[in-house]
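Hi support team,

I submitted a single chain yesterday and got back a structure, but I'm not sure I'm reading the token output correctly. Could someone confirm the output below corresponds to the sequence I sent? I've pasted both exactly as they appear in my results page.

Thanks,
R.
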Amino acid sequence: MVAMHENDGYSSFEKYREYLLFLAHRQLDRRLQAKIDLSGVVQQTLLEAHQALPEMRFENSAALMAAIRKILAGNLIDEIRKATAGKKDAYREQSLAEALDQSTALLENLMVADVSSPSDAIQRAERALQLTDALSRLLPAEREAIILKNWENMSLAEIGNRMERTPAAVAGLLKRGLHKLREEFARIEDSQ
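Hi R., thanks for writing in. Yes, this is the structure output for that exact sequence:
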């Protein structure tokens, strides 16, 4: 049972910042990204989590993360409404929370090779946080190539067109970026 207490403070939610920023960025339409301050949305989400979740008990850290994702989804919906000048997109609003959950599943699938047991929800949730943190430390081009390949299921040629690079250059970015991620996770495994 995971319990959040008032004395845990705001900083206890800081470990979710990169994770939430990653999810928000992946879910927001590219046309809206220039209109919405995702860092501000994440900051608001962390503040609301700090205010709303103390004294609540969660079955595990995965359940806590689901509660925080729900807050993020609500904040993104609010910002999308503001950015689209009140034009309501009911389908987008309904599917946003589901899309955030799907992004989390894709995030977990990227990093798991041998961690596939359903009983390891807590470990997978923690690894999702570690992965988003590790992704944030990659070179921007490596990170974008990995995201386009693994979340948007783009081919090397499609990624090359988007990034204005050759497919061979994209393959190199993917290889180097994934190698760095694996090294990071090996380092984490060794330290535990």
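A quick pointer for reading it: The chain has two domains: 2-118, 137-192. Let us know if anything else looks off.

Best,
Support desk
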